[in-house]
Write a structure and sequence with these properties.
The complex is a heterodimer of chains A (248) and B (263).
Chain A (H helix, E strand, L loop, with lengths): L1 H20 L3 H7 L2 H13 L2 H30 L4 H15 L3 H12 L3 H25 L3 H9 L4 H38 L5 H10 L3 H29 L7
Helix pairs in contact in A: 3-11, 4-7, 4-9, 4-10, 4-11, 6-7, 6-9, 7-9, 9-10, 9-11, 10-11
Chain B lengths: L11 E12 L2 E13 L4 E5 L6 H8 L7 E6 L11 E4 L11 H5 L1 H6 L4 H13 L15 H13 L5 E5 L7 H17 L3 E5 L3 H7 L2 E5 L4 E8 L9 H6 L1 H17 L2
Parallel strand pairs in B: 2-9, 3-7, 3-8, 5-6, 6-7
Antiparallel strand pairs in B: 1-2, 1-4, 8-9
Helix pairs in contact in B: 7-9
The chains are: A mainly alpha (248), B alpha/beta (263).
The complex binds adenosine-5'-triphosphate and magnesium ion.
Amino acid sequence: MVAGCQLALLAIFLGGWEYITSLDRQTAFLFGSPSAIFGFLKTMATDGSLARDTYVTALETLLGFLLGNLIGTLVGLSLWYSAFVSRVVQPFVVALGSIPIIALAPMVIIWFGTGLASKVAMSTLSVVVVALVTSYKGAMSVDPDQINLFRTLGARKSQIFRKLVVPSSLNDIFAGLKLTVGFALIGAIIGEFMSSSEGLGHAIFKAGSLYVIPKVFAALTATIALALVLTYLVGWLERLLKPWQPER
Amino acid sequence: MHQSGPGAAPPLVAERLAKTFDDGDVEVPVIADLSFTLNAGEIVSIVGPSGCGKTTLLNVVCGLTPASSGSVLWHGAAPQGMPGRVGYMLQKDMLLPWRTALSNVTLGMEIKGKVGMEERDKARVLLDRLGLHGFTDRYPATFSGGMRQRVALARTLVNDPEVLLFDEPFAALDFQTKLLLEADTVRLVREEGRSLLCITHDIEEAVSISDRVIVLTKRPTRAKAVYEIDLGDQHADMMEARQSPRFNDHVRAIWRDLEVSGT
Ligand SMILES: Nc1ncnc2c1ncn2[C@@H]1O[C@H](COP(=O)(O)OP(=O)(O)OP(=O)(O)O)[C@@H](O)[C@H]1O
Ligand SMILES: [Mg+2]
């Protein structure tokens, strides 16, 4: 039912778009058209650039996503260990979180070059603070009575961390993972915008500067598909890692 | 179980306990001056007005919160850190949703060492005795409140605690489930010679299960009255205890105490 409505909505949207852009050539030039986009997707698929660009961007995104979440989550969770340290670093985290990632791009390129590393760095940077904040929030929202229970059972702090804090934080960590799929992708694409020779961001940038609007949309479609696949993978991982959650 | 010959120190003694919380610049005196003894095999209940400091008292007794003055003696000695062999139960069951009923029960043994076949069997036997046969490998998310509190009770008892500290663990359950669980608890406590310090709002519950009931005053709290409960040898049966003529006398007396101190 839901899927049916979604398909219908998509069909109406694409149909309307196709119809309006078929009326005159200028709108078609400015807004592309689904059929032209599909045409470009087909040529990009046959000449291999679609697979290549998607692969490059997917790799950058995935590496940035993993690295950013790994670092952010490790730091965020371990801040639970020391209320003092977490109070000390709090303003710095807020400050880092408020830096627009795009402002870092020129420096990142100077530091990491124009290859894969700079894109991964951009992607990591746009993920890491969010991952840190969500996992820290998860760790700090553990029920204090639950901690007391562990203490009466004789648990050491490291046992409380492993057996209580980490699993309790999984909900928040996964919320962070879902949120940061998009951020990782944005980071990678911004990196490609700044300087690159391949990738979906590169394709979008190049087609855009040549005013080939349908090709921009074609690359954008591939980007959206990539985001959907990654989001789906995170959802699958969550179900795998949290089997105790009742079916809804 | 614990061998306590005559003259041995009682499992738990509180001597002139006082607790004041330091909330920034305001001092909140919660416990004024409280002394009591829990002997081996005894059930002692504590009743008192809401917010008088009962939970605080329990946390001080089991070492979660340091006392401001006075001492808590376990077998005649003040423990370094957490006292051993204490079972602590709250109104919240605090089951871990990512663990099955069985591995929730074995949590304490896991913290102390390794969990092998023997430990798991012990947990399984206890869950069976508490009527949870067939649910041992399920996650608690689908359990009823009564089932959850049974798992929590098993988690407490499986570590062979000498002393149980209860903070109204059954208060949120319906009357029938509550009676059944109380009966189970009292049976399991008395059978194995454990001691129980039980905080409750329910005066009838306190009188029906206890050897002694301590009534507390408002905050900062001290003991207002202590009742030795003697209902004959009928403690084993929850309903029969309530039929005893002295039962009503005790209940009424405690009611009056609490009314005067103002709930
Ligand atoms: N950490 C704390 N800092 C300051 N005040 C506290 C703290 N913990 C408890 N109190 C205060 O101590 C008083 C007693 O609290 P406590 O939870 O022990 O009462 P209680 O008798 O268990 O209440 P109830 O019957 O509602 O369970 C309350 O007024 C509470 O506000
Ligand atoms: Mg309380």
